[in-house]
# Entry
Amino acid sequence: VYEVYGEQLFSDGELQGTIFVHRDHTRNYELDKMKSDLVSTVSHELRTPLSSILGFAELMLMKELKPEKQRKYIETIHKEGNRLTHLINDFLDLQRMESGKESYEKERVDAAEIIMNVVHTMEPGQPNHSFIIEDKLQSGKIFADEDKLVQVMTNLISNAVKFSPNGGNITISMQNSQDNVMVSVTDQGLGIPEKELPKLFSKFHRVEGEKRQKIRGTGLGLAVCKKILEDHNGRIMVTSEEGKGSTFTFYLPALDGEELLQYTQSDST
Ligand code: ADP
# Structure
């Protein structure tokens, strides 16, 4: 978004030249867009759980309830409270990472082991989806903050589950090359329209659409994944076909003994 205007310069009534001023408003425009996305996320994602928390709490205050009903309401309050915490944590996490205040605790870890653990933790909670681990994941050593890698995997798998409301397979694969460890998560869900792909990793960006209206989220998960991976010298990409499914793939630098030494030294300075 540009603004250009020209100003003619005169000296003793004679035209000396014209100055053109170019103003780049792209950043302002992006900031405005981010603010309005933030406002709509906050108004929807904070208000919805808050109103059910307040609503159920009021009901419990007003009436004598049977213990089963009471328990059901408390469960809802608890669930919605968790959702709020999750949203606020994601937001603060990202804020901290972007301001460079995040301190990563990187060490030599095996990506395959971490990924298997995440899959095994999440799988039992998803009865409508089949988890497929392609081949046996080969061990792949990387220099990473384990908790953060768990966060990336958890986000990608929960998106795969969330955005395939009819169930299906969720396939996890990992390939090692000399330079990289490549991990991908594929689902057979809604897929993503091509025009949305470039914006997908931006903060608060959510794809609109009838089938997605009921699927809750903040539009922060992928932005968090991207930032974590970049802070590990890695990257993330997506391929998708609407109605067929999506594949999110990330790469992290593979580690051999010598590299490990370099990383450790440069990280401690
Ligand atoms: P959230 O899931 O909280 O909305 P994300 O940043 O994780 O936020 O994802 C941003 C958007 O990208 C989602 O709203 C969704 O529309 C789209 N998306 C992410 N993962 C998938 C997926 N596996 N299949 C289809 N759409 C996806």
